[in-house]
């Protein structure tokens, strides 16, 4: 009987030095690094790579640092509090690039036609008042964490596609995702756009209604990116490449199990058990698994970066005078680590 061992099993089973030898790379002393994440299903590859030993297999002693918004994460990378992070582009992140503090080195979550992706929601109160499609967003309030956040950008894309001037939509800056959820549930705000894993819970509770999908207005939107300090990108190339490799292995696991559904039932269960440990852990496992599967969004294979999308986000921030017009793509993006698409 021939025993088949996949790459994941080999890495976990052999340990750091053995795995690196197997993969044709020299072992090196474990380096302590911190990774900034949020408790969202879209951060699943970070959890999978930790739990399955992928970071350790690349010689990284990695610790997860949890955040509730994108901008504080960018500040933490710039200050050296964390080494790498996965989150959406924001005013704070782009502005820090001007000071040569941060570089976007890869892509993560992305919108894709045919997948649920990010859901556009109306509060139950607003829906009853006629906000039943994105075309009805004129005169409404829309939840964002901060001006220049990914939520703001999505609102801009939705409004632009429906011919609604942004001046006709009132942005409510609520700082944290949890605060936006509460505001939508209470009817304090009329609308929001959020990943399906969170949208599903709001819809199930009857506190919100689905009125559209962001992928209808931004089908190739690079929602989140992988970024690090300029110092790491320039001077810690072996470490940074090791991080990308480990993370990419976990991305493959996630996409196969949850997005493409090409993995075995046992593998799907294992992946979802890992995600549930970090996300929606207060909910019953079976309920959380159903949400993870029904609302899955693709993570870019190999951490590939959708350069057209992130450049569009940069140009929008510049056009709206939220960041300096002197910031160039070269100042923000280091494309030497991953494929650009």
From TrEMBL:
Coiled coil: none annotated. It comes from the Bacteria. Residues 42-253 form the SsuA/THI5-like domain. Keywords: Signal. It is found in: Periplasm. PROSITE patterns: TAT. Its main location: periplasm. Pfam families: NMT1. InterPro entries: SsuA/THI5, TAT_signal. Belongs to the bacterial solute-binding protein SsuA/TauA family. This is ABC transporter substrate-binding protein. It comes from Mesorhizobium salmacidum.
């Amino acid at each position: 009987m021939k025993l088949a061992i996949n790459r994941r099993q080999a890495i976990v089973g052999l340990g750091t030095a053995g795995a690196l030898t197997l993969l044709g790379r020299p072992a090196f002393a474990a380096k302590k690094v911190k990774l900034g994440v949020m408790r969202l299903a879209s951060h699943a590859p970070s959890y999978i790579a930790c739990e399955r030993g992928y970071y350790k297999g690349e010689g990284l002693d990695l610790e997860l640092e949890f955040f509730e918004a994108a901008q504080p994460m960018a500040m933490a990378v710039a200050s050296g509090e964390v080494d790498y992070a996965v989150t959406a582009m924001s005013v704070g992140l782009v502005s820090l690039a001007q000071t040569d503090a941060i570089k976007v080195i890869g892509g993560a979550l992305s919108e894709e036609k045919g997948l649920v992706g990010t859901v556009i929601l109306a509060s139950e109160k607003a829906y009853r008042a006629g906000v039943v499609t994105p075309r009805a967003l004129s005169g409404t309030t829309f939840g964002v964490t901060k001006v220049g956040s990914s939520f703001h950008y999505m609102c801009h894309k939705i409004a632009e596609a429906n011919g609604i001037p942004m001046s006709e939509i009132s942005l409510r800056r609520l700082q944290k995702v949890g605060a936006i959820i509460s505001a939508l549930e209470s009817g304090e705000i009329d609308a929001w756009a959020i990943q399906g894993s969170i949208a599903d819970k709001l819809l199930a509770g009857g506190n919100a209604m689905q009125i559209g999908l962001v992928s209808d207005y931004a089908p190739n939107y690079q929602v989140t990116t992988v970024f690090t300090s300029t110092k790491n990108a320039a001077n810690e190339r072996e470490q940074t490449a090791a991080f990308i490799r480990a993370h990419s292995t976990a991305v493959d696991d996630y996409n196969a199990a949850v997005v493409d559904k090409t993995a075995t039932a046992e593998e799907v269960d294992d992946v979802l058990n890992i995600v549930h440990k970090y996300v929606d852990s207060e909910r019953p496992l079976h309920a959380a698994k159903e949400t993870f599967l029904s609302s899955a969004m693709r993570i870019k294979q190999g951490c590939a970066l959708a350069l057209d999308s992130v450049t569009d986000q940069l140009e929008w921030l510049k056009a709206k005078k939220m960041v300096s017009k002197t910031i160039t793509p070269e100042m923000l993006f280091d494309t030497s680590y991953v494929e650009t698409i």
